[in-house]
Amino acid sequence: DTAVSQTPKYLVTQMGNDKSIKCEQNLGHDTMYWYKQDSKKFLKIMFSYNNKELIINETVPNRFSPKSPDKAHLNLHINSLELGDSAVYFCASSPSRGSYNEQFFGPGTRLTVL
Amino acid sequence: GENVEQHPSTLSVQEGDSAVIKCTYSDSASNYFPWYKQELGKRPQLIIDIRSNVGEKKDQRIAVTLNKTAKHFSLHITETQPEDSAVYFCATGGTSYGKLTFGQGTILTVHP
Questions:
Q1: What is d(CA B51, CA B63) in angstroms, rounded to the nearest whole number?
Q2: Which among B23, B13, B18, B33 is positioned nearest to B77, based on CA atoms?
Q3: A76 pairs with which residues across the strands?
Q4: Which of B28, B25, B3, B18 shows the shortest CA–CA distance to B75?
């Protein structure tokens, strides 16, 4: 009964490839997020969706495209992978898009670009 | 945009000692200040949070203090235990659709 799950857990791929990461939450939350954690552990938000609507879109290369087919799922597709995309990507969810909500993180996907 | 500075970057204490981690922020509109703990190889998890209308909040061995005028807030852990060893992140929120801006993280090591 995992609350926020991500697949795959590890992803190793070559530069130039296209890959996707999937996220699902069974908490009934309205809002989902994608974060990138780099090698120095810095956590930075990339995107947020509220009930399938994009509400936060940080300065991220347009090679990254999120998609939310329904409010329980948020996927991240990355085109033309680069070395600098190597990181841990965390999905998170919160009850709503309000300010004071705890964000529940998934287990992370470690992406390594060779 | 918001900028959150966190210090120290690493902190080493003996079991039973106290640990203090400090954060400063730039956006005076921020009104939500959570702290997340991330154990090695695991996901970040919320341990305590405070809203801007409160100056201090305590939960067993952890406490957070907020000084809105000076734009800084701190995490205090008393009677540290080896299982407190982790990376701790402060964050600010409240200005845009639940967006959190994280500090750089503090690696806390508690020696038995």
A1: 13
A2: B18
A3: A21, A66
A4: B18
Q: Check if A39 contacts B (Cβ < 8 Å).
A: no
pLDDT at A65: 95
Token pair 């406490």 is found at: B63
Tell me the pLDDT tens digit for each residue of B88-107: 999 999 876 788 999 999 99
Position B81, amino acid: Q
Residues 33-72 of B with CB under 8 A from A: 34, 38, 42-46, 49, 51
- The rounded mean pLDDT for chain B is 95
Q: How far is CA A28 from CA A70, A94, A95, B90, in A?
A: 11, 9, 7, 26
Contact in structure between A6 and A106 (CB atoms under 8 Å): yes
Residue type, B31: N
Half-sphere exposure of A36 (CA within 13 A, CB side): 17
Q: Quick one: CA dihedral A56, B30, A5, B104, positive or negative?
A: positive
Dmax over CA atoms of chain B, in Å, equals 42
What band does B41 get if pLDDT is binned at 50, 70 and 90? very high
A59 interfacial to chain B (CB closer than 8 Å):
no
A62 phi/psi in degrees, rounded to 5? -75, 10
Question: How many beta-carbon pairs under 8 angstroms link A with B?
Answer: 60
